Amino acid sequence: MNLTAKDKNTVRTFWAKISTNAEDIGTDFCLKIKSFFPPFFRMLVVYPQTKTYFSHWKDPSPSSAPVKKHGATVMAGVADAVAKIDDLRAGLLSLSELHAFTLRVDPANFKVLSHNILVVLAISFPNDFTPEVHVAMDKFLSAVFHLSLMST
Amino acid sequence: MVAWSDQERSIITSIFSNLDYNDVGPKALIRCLIVYPWTQRYFASFGNLYNADAIKTNPNIQAHGTKILHGLDRAVKNMDDIKTTYAELSVLHSEKLHVDPDNFKLLADCLTIVIAAKMGSGFTPEIQETFQKFLAVVVSALGKQYH
Question: What Gene Ontology molecular-function terms does this entry list (chain A) (predicted)?
Answer without folding.
Answer: haptoglobin binding; heme binding; metal ion binding; organic acid binding; oxygen binding; oxygen carrier activity; peroxidase activity
